[in-house]
Amino acid sequence: MRRRKSKNHQVLSNLTIWFWALILVLVAVGSVWGMLYFFGNDPKGSTRLEAIRIASTVVVGTGGAAALLLTARRQRFSELDGTERRITELQTKAAEQLGHEKAAVRLAGLHSLERLANDHPSHRQTIVDIICAYLRMPFTPPPDRLPARPIAGNLRNRREPAWQRRSFETSVSNSLIEERFQEQQVRQTAQRILQAHLTPNRRWKKSWPRNPYFWKDIRLDLSGATLENLDLARCEITSGLFNGCHFIGRRTCFSFACVRGGMLFRGAKFSANKTNFSFVRFHGAVTAFDHASFDGTTDFRYAWIASAAFRNTSFAVEPELEGARFGVKEREHALAPPLVVRARAEGGYELTEKCYGQLWDFFEEP
Questions:
Q1: Residue 136: inside a domain, yes or no?
Q2: 37-57 burial, b for 16+ CB within 10 Å, e for fewer?
Q3: What confidence tens digit (pLDDT) does each residue in 138-187 have?
Q4: Choosing a second label site near 211 at 20 to 30 A (CA), which of 7, 22, 34, 341?
Q5: Do 84 and 211 sit in the same domain of this protein?
Q6: What's the domain range around 309?
Q7: Which among 323, 257, 267 has a CA at the least distance from the CA of 294?
Q8: Over the stretch 307-331, which tens digit does the pLDDT of each residue have?
Q9: How many whole angstroms separate alpha carbon 217 and alpha carbon 260?
Q10: Global pTM?
């Protein structure tokens, strides 16, 4: 089912008000003239007086209806203004929660923004911008494991050996590590919110049920962000800015993603163990990987990119390019030699030519 588009309620202009006032005057004059013309021929004048009374009633009724309409419209604008003001207040409060020192409060702020976006589609892009701005904040990943906490006890006179005593610096560093773990959970929640609402279908087939909470026509700006285990598989967005991003973790996934505009990864560093761009559809005028580096395995199998740029892009491991199509029309059946992967003199690999892979019927026009 298609969602109804929200109507833009505009304020009446002076020209519109004067136009309807003129219409009202013409209706009044026409009513009086019509009553006098058809019912004003009585020589005694009683019928004429009654006609004038009826015409006056029509004029007054028309004016009352116009006043009632303006009052209802004014009330409608007051309600809309109050609703917008309330949304702005809730949005501001949720944004302030994202800056709180406690992770639980930041999580509450994220879920408040998610609820606002679901209830008010016109504010979705603004809320996504707030979430992206939070992810762009500086972040230092925690270590792989949380440090062990000291065993609590009620023995006041317990004496520990010197090598077991915890110094003040050690306790401070452990508290900082715990804060990093908490911040990691908050950022993972923010990424999951984006992934959940940018996926149009719950499965890869279009025949499967459509996501009722899909956010359409969203632009992502995550330039310079540190993103751990980012998963945008099967997502559909308008455009994406990932310039200077640092992708870390076990896996970075864009597989089956569909992007209508440009995707920029200039200067991005893909440090995840595996980066997956398989079966992507990037329709934009440019998809730039200039000066990007891929430290782990990279999968471009059966990817379709309308215009790809790999200037000074380095790969630590030879990328998988089976069936990839770069820089060709989606319905073009001509085949050309595959993309050339050349070993670099200083180590690693680089791409040297465009790729024209085989045509696959999996992709369909939207």
A1: no
A2: eeebeeeeeebbeebeeebee
A3: 999 888 755 555 545 554 445 555 444 444 444 547 788 888 999 999 99
A4: 7
A5: no
A6: 205-351
A7: 267
A8: 888 888 899 998 998 888 887 544 4
A9: 9
A10: 0.69
